[in-house]
Amino acid sequence: MIELAFSILASDFAHLADEVAAAERGGGTIVHVDVMDGHFVPNITFGPPMVKALRPVTKLPLDCHLMIENPDAFIPEFAEAGADMISVHQEVCRHLHRTLQQIQQHGMLPGVVINPATPVETLIEVLPMVHYVLVMSVNPGFGGQQFLPLALDKIAHLAELRHEMGLNFRIEVDGGVAHDTVAQVVEAGAEMLVAGSAVFGPGRTEHNAQQLLKLARAAAPAQD
Ligand code: DX5
Ligand code: ZN
Question: How far does residue 85's CA lie from ligand 2's centre (Å)?
């Protein structure tokens, strides 16, 4: 099933609840929360207090993308704040298996993320324990960057591995997903589409979300 995970990073923070409501009316079904620490990525955003503020304004699942150096230390706090899904970067987790277990033990769905330069093969051992794999299609740190086509082969490779290994994790893609790139990512096999600027940028949020989902669904394989 194709789903739109709208990234609040590109929204108007002064009207956050309204922005979330508009993206939800447009068909968005996941709230993507980009957590950045100024160390792993060259930018700082927000943390558990943002999750706590969002929790009462929407029933949608809160998908926290942790771009931070020490995710283990913050997992309990994110759970407490109301996060439903947590993804951690393969590149920062010295004990990735343990971190994913910890997310699960705190009652959240574990996901793993790979940067553009990180091969899919680095995930093989943990694929059976993740709910989703997030393929970065930009280098993390900022919204509004250009889509990197190298993500397409990685998405297709993951879809193949999932089939071969008899697994059912979902494939999420993040960065530069917009009207001109969404068909390719869906054709490659992505199902959870993260979009920030394409939803909250120019135009009406509700309409932007609808259009993006329409293009995505038109490109989806028949079973969708
Ligand atoms: C980048 C973030 C993305 C970003 C996507 O580091 O992980 O989620 O907000 O923004 P767009 O859709 O504008 O590329
Ligand atoms: Zn993200």
Answer: 12
User: Model confidence over 125-136: pLDDT tens digits?
Assistant: 999 999 999 999
Q: Report the CATH number at residue 51.
A: 3.20.20.70
Tens digit of pLDDT for each residue in 134-154?
999 999 999 999 999 999 999
Whether residue 116 is contained in a domain is answered as yes
For residue 10, the ligand closest to its alpha carbon is: 1
Burial 21-50 (b: 16+ CB within 10 A, else e): bbbbebbbbbbbbbbbbeebbeeebbbbeb
34, 37, 63, 84: the catalytic one is 34
Question: Is 18 designated active site?
Answer: no
Q: Do 212 and 176 touch, CB atoms closer than 8 A?
A: no
**Both tokens assigned to 223:** 């079973």
The answer to whether position 122 is within a domain reads: yes
Range of the domain at 42: 3-219
- Which ligand is the nearest neighbour of the Cα of 43? 1
Protein residues whose CB sits closer than 6 Å to any atom of ligand 1? 7, 9-10, 32, 34, 65, 138, 140-145, 174-177, 194-198
* pLDDT range class, residue 194, cuts 50, 70, 90: very high
pTM of the model: 0.98
